[in-house]
Every structure is written in C-alpha cells, then in structure tokens.
Amino acid sequence: MIKEIQLEKELTKPLYLQLYSQIKGLIEEGKLQAHDKLPSIRKLAKGLQVNTVTVVNGYNVLEEEGLVYKKVGSGTFIMPNEQIKDKIIPGEGQADDSELKKEDEEVINFGTVAPSPSLFPIQAFKRLLNQVLDRDQGYAFGYQKSQGYLPLRESIAQYVENYQIEIGAEQIQIVSGAQQGLDVLAKTFLDYGDTVFVERPTYPGAISAFKSRKVELIDIPLEKDGLNLEELEVLLKRYKPKFLYLMPNFQNPTGYSYSLKKKKELLKLADQYELLIIEDDCVSDLNYLGQPRKSLKALDTEDKVVYLKSFSKLYMPGLRLAFMIIPSSYCEDILVSKYLSDIFTDGLVQRVLDLYLRREDWQEQLNCLKEKYSQRYQVMITALKEYLPPNVDYIEPEGGLNLWLKLPQQVSATKLHKVLRKDGVNIAPGALFYHTKPHKNRIRLSIAAVTCQQIEEGIQQLGQRIREELKEEGDYRFDESMMPLV
Amino acid sequence: MIKEIQLEKELTKPLYLQLYSQIKGLIEEGKLQAHDKLPSIRKLAKGLQVNTVTVVNGYNVLEEEGLVYKKVGSGTFIMPNEQIKDKIIPGEGQADDSELKKEDEEVINFGTVAPSPSLFPIQAFKRLLNQVLDRDQGYAFGYQKSQGYLPLRESIAQYVENYQIEIGAEQIQIVSGAQQGLDVLAKTFLDYGDTVFVERPTYPGAISAFKSRKVELIDIPLEKDGLNLEELEVLLKRYKPKFLYLMPNFQNPTGYSYSLKKKKELLKLADQYELLIIEDDCVSDLNYLGQPRKSLKALDTEDKVVYLKSFSKLYMPGLRLAFMIIPSSYCEDILVSKYLSDIFTDGLVQRVLDLYLRREDWQEQLNCLKEKYSQRYQVMITALKEYLPPNVDYIEPEGGLNLWLKLPQQVSATKLHKVLRKDGVNIAPGALFYHTKPHKNRIRLSIAAVTCQQIEEGIQQLGQRIREELKEEGDYRFDESMMPLV
Fold first, then answer.
1. Looking at chain B, which residue has its C-alpha nearest residue A100?
2. What domains can be seen in chain B, in order of their start residue?
3. Count of other CB atoms within 10 angstroms of residue B106
4. pLDDT confidence of B83, banded at 50, 70, 90?
5. Which residues, listed in sequence order, are joined to residue B475 by a DSSP beta bridge?
6. Confidence tier at A263 by pLDDT (50, 70, 90)
C-alpha cells in the first residue's frame, strides 16, 4: 500500500490531508478492503519520509470520517462498507453549492435535519469573522454578559419585526443553540413531579431535556391543522402543567402547521387556563407556497408565549446560537438558569451574527436558501406521488424540512430503516418521536441534507422496499438500537 | 456637545467607534456629567452627517460599557460616576500587555478571577482561526459529535501527560466551559433528594448548578492543607453522597492547596467508601514557587476521579471550552447529559484549540502567563505585609489567582466591600462562597485583572479602610444585594 501513496511537500494542501485523501481513494477503488490493516504509524511515516504526527493526523481524519476503526494495541483497520455508509460524511465544505462533493452522495440521508454545510455562506461568515476580529480585538474574547451581547439583542429585536413580533432587546435571552434553550427552560420551570404537555409526536431532544427534570410528560395528539384542542382542554381541567411545548409551523417531525384559527383558539385557552406556551420556531421562514406562517408569539397579546428560535437551520448549521423572547416576568429567572448552564454564549459568534443581521444580506441568504429547499421539496412531492404505493398516507406541508409518512399498518418502520440502510438510504423511524407507545408505521423524511437527484433515487428505493414489505407481511419487533438523531 | 465631536470618514477606525471614543473622552474630561442627556439619535446623526445606525451603534457600545444608560421614551443619559466605577471595563484588547489601557485602570478590580483579555495571545488566536477556516472550510461549521472533535480530544490526551495523567481520547468529554461541565455532571449524577459533599467555602457556580437539581449540599471545612478528613469520614459513615466536589490546587476562593499526604488519604477514603470525586482543576498550572502541584487524577489508580479543566484562565477568557476526563463506566451517561445540554460544543473553537495545542507554543504561553501573574503575586504579598493590620489572617498560597483574608471579627466584609467600591476598589465578600451560615469577615482578593501598580494602591486603600472599620467597630448587617461573580 505504501508504494501507492505519494505525498507532495510542495502542495499547499497539508500532508496529513493528502494522506487522508489518498487512503480514501484506495478504499474507494477497492484496493483497501474491509478489515484490511493499515501500516503502523512508525512504518508509514518512515516509508513516506514524513513526521509520525502527519500519519497520526491523517489516520485521525479517516477515523473521524468513519472510514477506519482502531483496535487498542493492534492497529488501524478499514471499516466494512455497510458501516461506512451508515455515517453521515460531511463534504469538504466548498461554499459553492453547485456541486455537492462525492462524500455527500455516498449515503442518501433523509434521516437528518442538519443541513449540508455547503448550503451556507461560509465565505461571507469568514469575512465577517475577520471584520469582527479587526474591529473588536480583545472585546470579542472577554467574558460576555449572560443575557447576551447587547447589539445582537438589538438587531434581533429589529429582525423579529419581520415576523410581526414587537419586543425590546431586554426581553431577549441569547442561548448556545435551541437545545440549550430547552434545557434552560426546563431548569427554570420544571421540578420533580411537575407536569408538562407536549405534542404527539414531538422532537426527542425536548423530551430528553424535560425528562431530565423528572417530570410527567403528557402528550396531546397533533392533527394535520394543529393540536387536538378538545383533548387539550379536557387535560387542562385535570392538570396544571408548567407549560405546553409545541412547534406551530412546519413541526418536527410531522411538517404540520397549525391553522390560524387553531392558533387563536389555543391562545384563548392559554389565557383562560393560565397556560404558559413554549413556541419552538425552527423553520417557519421556509414556506415554499403561500404566505409566511404567523408565529404564535406574533398573535400573543397576553404575554403567554416564550418564543425560541435557532439560527442553525437558516444561517450556519454548527453555530451554537439561538435566542428566546421571554415574557418580562420570567426574564430574571431564565437569566439565572442560563448563567448556571454555561455562564454566557461565545462572544465571537454573537458579534458575527450581529454584523450579519445588520448588513441586511439576511433576506438574500434566506431567499437563496428557500429557493434551494423549495426545489428539493417539489422533487420530493413529485417522487412520493410517483413511487410510493397509494396506501402510504401523508400531507404536503408546503414548507419546512420534513415529511411524515404513515405506512400501511403491516409495515414496520424499524425494519424498513434497517433494510434501506443497506441500500445506502437513511430514514428516521417514527418511533423516535414518541415518548410512550410509539406508532410503529411512521417515518420522517427530511430534505435538509439530500440533493434533488438523491431524492429521486432514494424515494424510488423507498417505494420499492415498502412494496416488498407489503408482500412479505413479516412480523418484526421494535428495535431500540437506533442511531441518534438531530 | 455636537460641535465637539469630529468623525473622520477617512480613518480605518469605524465611525461608530470614533463616536464612542469621543463621547467617552468628553465624559472623562468632565464635559459630560452624570445624568446629562445625550442628543437624540436623529439629531446627532444629522449634525454629524452620518447614518443613524452609526449613532445607534456608538450609543450601544457606550451602554454596553456602562458609560450611559437609556430610559425608554426619554433618551440616553450619562451614568453617574460611582456606577461607572462599578463596571469591569475591558481594555480595547491589545495583545501587548506592556501597557494596560486606561479603562482597565479606572477600577482596581480584586473582585474577579476573569483575566484581562490583554494577557492573552489574541493575534495568535486570530492567525490560527484563519488557518482552520482555510483548512477545514465547511467542516468547521457543521454539526459536531457530542463527545467532541476527535483530534482535539487526542491532543488533550497528550497534553495531560504534562500532569502525569495517562488516559485515552475516548475518556475525554469536551464541554462548553467549566460551568457547563458542572451542569452536565449535575444532570448525570444528581436527582431530587440526593446528597452532595462540597468544600466550605467553595465556588458559587458549583453550588447553584448542584442546587438546581434539588439536592442536599453538605459542606466540609477546608483547612489550609486540604479538607478536614476526620469530618469527611464521619459524614461518609452517615451519608452516601453522589459525589464530593473539590479543587485540590489553589482553590477558589481560598487559594489553599491540599498536601500530597491529604490527597493520598482522600483517595484511600474514596476507595473505601466508594466515593466519586469531582476534581475541578482551574489553575494548578500557576505555581509561582516550588514544584507543580499534582492533581488528584494523576494519583487516582482506582478511577474514582472525574477531572474537569477549563481553558478560560489559561488560554482565552471568553473561550467556551473545557474538558472532562471521565472514568470509563460513566462516559456514556455523561455523553447523554452533554447531548441534551447543547448537543455539541462549537466546532470552530475546538479546531483552533487543537491546532494551538499541536503547535506546541502552549508551554511558552503558559510560561509567559505565569511570569506575569507571578509578578503580581509577589507585589500582592509584599503589599499585604506592608499595609494590612497584623490581625488580618491569611496564608501565602504560592500560586493561583486568589488570596483569602480573614479579617478581625468586628469587621464586616460586606460593609468593607461597599466602602471600597466608592474608592474605586472592588473586592469579593466571602459570604458569596458559602451556601449556609457565611462567615462575615472573609474576603477574596484576585490578581487576575489588576496591574502591579493597582495592587500596590488598592491594598494600601484596603489596609486603611480596615483600620478605620476597626476604630468604628460599627455594627452592620449582612446585605445580600451583591454583585454577581465569576
């Protein structure tokens, strides 16, 4: 193997990345096969006349990418193929979206809502980052206030005017991502023995954050136009929940949006029963058809809604930055919970996002993103119509990143998930989104990390596998050993 | 006022920062006085022929710096002097420490352990940041693994060999700062009704993180050479604590370090009583005299110690990055708690720190930092000897950032704190570091954010005020309205 590798010290590409790419190439060409042992670090370093650190780093990237595995004391080995396909392998991150890299194409990943990095304005981010460093120097690295960098809170207050939300910077709390927002809210409001209402199904990260406070979760069926309000009212008469957590627009996992009528009725109930609502607004911006969806917060005249919004689906996937709009009476309690969670959110990214929002290319970025997602969405809908058997039930959400499929009763989502993984197609089995009594025949398909061509191929494959399952009518049990989800 | 401001559009310094500096200058010269109203945004923008955004930004920086305050509906006003002095005003962040900026000198701040940004290698950080961006592009911004970026975990595994700790990358969990580490540990181990042992006194952020899980905190007296082990053993016979939280080297707030003998005895007790120990190692690197202090983890042969270390005191104060070394049996539970706290830690800073550790200028940075702190420490000790009355009791910790003073019984730390604030000197009253029955005559002095000259002046002032209090022998009550501390 060593003979096939040629590193060029003159290239600007670092040696360890050259090594990584070449070994990866050998795997792809089949010259290195499952469980083949790679040369020892010392041997390869000697053979290539490079520092051992170079080899260590190259092997590390291969491991990080899931292409090799290490066994303590015996060496580094090639990962078997099907396991390689299980991994979500990020592209090398060209800012140009026109050509997704080969790595992205190895697996057709309907299973994640984490968008391809290639969708995002990395060059612009880098430019802003350097502007912030030049402008603020040490400021950007010092201790920050727990509530968040004031100029950013002010730009956000201005930005949410786009959603018809009128608030001041003093009601905004910056958090390190939406998950931290949920955790901070859980710390603030929940205690041993409390009750929380959630949608059924809902986002598993929320379930975990609330359960970590040892509360009782009660789920309320989510219908195609929003929560079942009769059932909500029955439960409100029986329980005094600390809050109701929901995603009223393009929900995760279902893609469902509440009708305006239900939104208004819900707020009436909230007022009547003194119910606090946590509104998680992940992607209400991504409407591909019709008018933008109104948030509950925009309709909330009685200050009953905590609004939580992340930038990771819309600006940068890895940005640990989200914000909450908080009814004034809770600001201080939430600030304390934020403080004891991580004291403050990184000042540098706060400054970059502030600059970004102020420069007003936000709308442009959003439009560009919407256009790309909208294309994928259209291709998805067309493919579903073309390739799925007619007894698969779903609605067209007209926006967002997710579609929620109800398969015929006899098809197990978990088995389908397993079978498709072998084909190089990843889906999210619906059971993940229920905290009790999961429906076994639901799946979530996301368009965040797939190209149009992948959608076409993947859905065709999905349709075929469902038909096969229908023929087999096999009886499989629910399997909990499933991949983690974001 | 408008006439006195001249913005130069040719300068590279942004207009809003020019505006900020000039208004700040007018305040310093006394031309703008407490409660003076600044011109309206529209008026000033018109007068200076700049965009209103420029004025808004300039005013924001002034507010962020605590130099002005806003009243909704009526405008922006100059903050009264004594309130300005309360603020910790960061320097404009020159990487060169030789001349601390005037802002830093306005208040002599013994009250914070957050180091002056000027102590840190900002230019190097910026260079590394750009190298990471060039090298990794989109990788740096994508979703990261919850356990942390593998190459960083490997560099840390190598780095802790300096502390005689031998572990693999798989035992390392990256967290977004030490406070998050405490929060993650609390989530993992603590539940309603559990018991936790802590040192008395201890770090208030730990008290809050543990209390948030509704546990019973039991504190054990910390002596000058470590925890009172007799008392610990008595309590271990009575309780089954989930863990014992401690800082064995240069403790916060006391600066005390455990003797090697006590460290070993403590580990024996841990083994005997199956006690899990959380070791918070903030600044064991900062020994100014004698040998480096051994960590408990280095002595821990039975895997009874979770080791937590932040980089904010040693690398960049605002960096939200720390790591934990975890006994293998707990790795998975802790990973789940990390996941539900914020899913993952920012990938960009993980990559920068990784590069930094690999480039090996770490030791140089550390030596440079130690030299500066060591100077301050020497000046501090000399000043304490010279200016304090002989009945003030303290030990010389020989390292770290803190000194812990026991004042004569009749002197109230809280009153002293108030009196000194008016003099422009800030100290941390000891009561903050006890969760029950605080001693009222202890204070913590930190050398993290003061120059040598400030130490000289500040301690002289402190000595004088203590003498005055001794004369007065006034009777003051404990006042809880105290500043938040880091």
1. B138
2. 2-87 (1.10.10.10), 104-119+364-472 (3.90.1150.10), 122-360 (3.40.640.10)
3. 16
4. very low
5. none
6. very high
Name the amino acid, one letter, at B479: D
Among candidate residues B160, B159, B174, B171, the one with its CA nearest the CA of residue B298: B160
Cβ B472 vs Cβ B436: under 8 Å = no
**Pairwise CA distance, residues A25 & A192, whole Å:** 54
Structure-block tokens of residue A472: 């087999």
Phi/psi at B359 (5° precision): -75, -10
A84 and A66 in contact (C-beta within 8 Å)?
A: yes
Contacts A122 to B, Cβ<8 Å = 137-138, 141
A11: pLDDT strictly greater than 90: no
3-state secondary structure of B417: helix
Task: Determine, for residues B212 and A340 on separate chains, whether the beta-carbon distance falls below 8 Å.
Answer: yes
Q: Is A480 exposed, middle or buried (0-12, 13-18, 19+ CB in 10 A)?
A: exposed
Which residues contact residue B336 at a Cβ distance below 8 angstroms, ignoring those fewer than 6 apart? A208, B188
**pTM for this predicted structure:** 0.77
- Distance separating alpha carbons of residues B271 and B269, to the nearest angstrom: 5
Task: Report DSSP state, residue A330.
Answer: G
Separation in Å, CA A88 to CA A444, B119, B174? 17, 40, 21
Residues B407 and B257: beta-carbon distance below 8 Å: no
Average pLDDT, chain A: 87
B190 phi/psi in degrees, rounded to 5: -110, 140
Name the residue with higher pLDDT: B146 or B106: B146
Averaged pLDDT, A66-90: 63
pLDDT digits (tens, 9 = 90+) for B129-182: 888 888 887 778 788 899 999 999 999 999 999 899 999 999 999 999 999 999
C-alpha neighbours within 13 Å on the C-beta side of residue A92: 11
Q: How many CA atoms lie within 13 A of B387 on its CB side?
A: 18
Q: Which residues are CB-contacts of B340 (< 8 A; sequence separation ≥ 6)?
A: A179, A183, A205, A208, A209, A212, B187
Distance CA B23, CA B62 (A): 8
* A234 within 8 A of A256, measured Cβ to Cβ: no
Query: Are B287 and B194 in contact, with CB atoms under 8 Å apart?
Result: no
Q: Is A485 helix (H, G, I), strand (E, B) or coil?
A: coil
Distance CA B69, CA B60 (A): 10
Mean pLDDT value of segment B428-450: 94
pLDDT tens track for B119-128: 777 777 888 8
Distance from CA of A476 to the nearest CA of B (A): 28
B425 residue type, one letter: V
Nearest residue on chain B to A206, alpha-carbon basis: B340
- Between B43 and B104, the more confident residue is B43
SS3 B365: helix
pLDDT of residue B445: 98
Span of A192-206, A308-322, B215-229 with lowest mean pLDDT: A308-322
Nearest to B179 among A93, A214, A343 (CB): A343
A 32-61 residues with CB < 8 A to B = 53, 56-57, 60-61
Using pLDDT thresholds of 50, 70 and 90, give the confidence band for residue A303.
very high
Question: A320 CB contacts (<8 Å, ≥6 apart)?
Answer: A176, A177, A180, A345, A346, A349, B176, B320, B342, B344, B345, B346
Query: In terms of C-beta density within 10 A (0-12 exposed, 13-18 middle, 19 or more buried), how is residue A344 classed?
Result: buried
Question: Is A156 at the interface with chain B, CB within 8 A?
Answer: no
Structure tokens at A102: 């080969």
Q: Are B241 and B218 in contact (CB under 8 A)?
A: yes
CB B315 within 8 A of CB A344: no
Backbone Cα Rg of chain B: 24
User: Chain B: nearest CA to A135, how far in angstroms?
Assistant: 8
Sequence-separated (6 or more) residues with CB below 8 Å from residue B469:
B410, B411, B412, B415, B416, B419
Taking the C-alpha atoms of residue B408 and residue B417, their distance in angstroms, rounded to an integer, is 15
Q: What SS3 class is residue A482?
A: coil
